[in-house]
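Quick one:
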Amino acid sequence: MLKLTNLRMWVLAAAATGMLASCQKNGQMPALKDADQTITNKTIKTLAVSLTQGFEVGSTSPKTAYDVSPTGSSSGDNVTLSGSSWNMYDALIGNLAADQKAGSWSARVRNTGKITMLFDVTTGISTVTIKSATYNGDSASTWGLFYSTDGGSSWAQSGSAITTTASLTVSTFTLTQTGNVRLEIRKLTGGSNRINIDDITINDNAGGGTGGGGTVLTGKKFLFDASHLENAGSADWQIDADGTEQVAIYTGGTTTETKAQRIPTPSYTGITSSTSETYWKGALSAWAVELVKRGELVETLPVGTAITYGGGGAQDLSNYDVFVVCEPNRLFTAAEKTALMNFVANGGGLFMIADHTAATTAGTDANGYNPSDRDGDGYDSPRVWNDLMTNNGINNNNPFGFNINYVDINESPSTNVYTGSNADAQKVLNGAAGAASKMAFYDGSTATLYPANNSSVQGLFWRNSATNGGTANAMALLATYGSGRVVWIGDSSDADDGTGDTGDNLFNGWSGDAPSGYTSHSAFHLNASLWLAKAQ
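Output:
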């Protein structure tokens, strides 16, 4: 993406017009370890949890009627949830005020309805947890959990029937079944009284096998920030945008930019394995579509919405597993910085993406470095992130173990990738989405690591001229903080899929960046996303 943020840069770009076919941007060539996870070469021990289903379906329910005609017909009751097929007979997915739910949606079952997996968990099942409650205003009912080891031909009940209560209550079932297993939840008594089912979690019984990047957990919730002018200037760091808004620009005044909404449209329930990233309009749409294909959930925090944690709102960070912030152009408020720090400390994942900069944001410095202050307020993304890590009121001493350098580098590409045995690093570099072995920067920043401040900080890529495993000139890194996780990368271009706002200068750094061969950016971002979500 051409990141032109001042008049001098526009002049330089115009002078380099004849070089654009082979140049990028401004004309230059381009911890804490989980006890139950181990690493051997490039294989990862599978997680104990093999499937979660929270019935979060976006803005529109794929199942709004209890049953189809004729009664008991199966195909009309089939729905796709997190990439897998389920049958919901005399059941639907609801979000009414009377529905008891852990997020925005839950399943609602009446009469003798049932919710059935139309696929097998292939790694066996040790235990299952399910939340249930009585639909508000109805009387209590009972339900049971059944399992099948022969593809649904025969079923056996696990444990005793559960009587619903007024609020969601967790029930645990021990199955200890190996091989292929599928589940069915049946409403047993209560007649027309309705019940809600939510947050089904299946723990596997495979004994922790290895290979294939490990089991990826589905149903993780990713929130992409659009509240800090991620669309300012030539940027378009959004997963989907259907409207427009006026956004400040560094030269003064405003420009018309695409505006993201909370729920991307069309609904992500329509995404299949063959869906193109152009299903949504945004420079980060490829990233979001790939997460959905892996069974995860994505939303946007729209402009005008504050970042909160523990406040109880619909988009409070406590409702999400990972918060992705790609090149923020406005400082976080004091309350937002508190929310971010507490979110990570209490188990959340924070994906921090920065861009190039200079010693000041007044213009190109003596080294030729350019700031990326797209809205002209005196702050660009490196300064926004450094402000979070040095002025948050909780721990102002680089609590994640690094600080961003005010530089503007190009690396085409770096193959100086971490080769050690850190298990977390290997999950990000060699995880379920493939190997991340190259990283190109088209005007980006680097970081200095401070392991004395946080011993978990681990560099993942360095400049080719830097010391592998050192603390200087890191291009990407990870760290843990409290029970949460952080990933940082110094260039936003690597996540750019080349599509989005037609008024911006975009290029494909996600999978087709030029010169050819820098094609592991998608693997890095997806592996990092899954690691942050504790999904691999």
